[in-house]
């Protein structure tokens, strides 16, 4: 599992979940979010950004929600987000697929996959991120999510 924060201004480096880690709210908060992404996002965008994450169970943890409510200016809380919404997450609907397409083979062992992802991410064209971010608002404005009742569209 990998974490990345993206915006039209800039993106974070890829942050990988430690092998064998138990994905809890505490690990997400202390081991992932506080590791780098929030600091990078805040230094780039100051107080002009929204924070959205998917609805993984660890993201509902009280510590995560409290942290994001206090540290991000426009946090979209889990109770405002459809349960199954990959079509509303730029990383899911555009960026991961593009990364997967650019990595030509399945890597074994895991460290080679991570190196391949890091190298591919370093060469990633920011126009792909810009497009994905632009599509996010359009996906909401078209009410496609509402019409699909939170299902894929």
Strand adjacency order, main sheet = 1-2
Shape: globular
CATH class: Alpha Beta
Could you say how many structural domains there are in total?
1
What is the helix content? 40-55%
Considering the protein shown, what is the CATH homologous superfamily?
Ribonuclease H-like superfamily/Ribonuclease H
- Main sheet overview: 2 strands, antiparallel
**Total DSSP E strands:** 4
Any low-confidence stretches, pLDDT <50, length ≥5? none
Q: Radius of gyration in whole Å, from Cα?
A: 16 Å
Mean pLDDT: 79
Please work out how many helical segments DSSP would assign: 7
Query: In sequence order, what are the helices and strands, one letter per element?
Result: EEHHEHEHHHH
Class per helix and strand makeup: mainly alpha
Could you describe the 3D structure shown?
It contains seven helices and four strands. With about 150 residues, the chain is mainly α. The protein has a single domain, classed as Ribonuclease H-like superfamily/Ribonuclease H (Nucleotidyltransferase, domain 5), CATH 3.30.420. The strands form two sheets. The protein has a two-stranded antiparallel ribbon. The protein has a two-stranded parallel ribbon with strand order 3-4. Helix 1 runs parallel beside helix 3 and helix 4 runs antiparallel to helix 6. The protein is globular, with a radius of gyration of 16 Å.
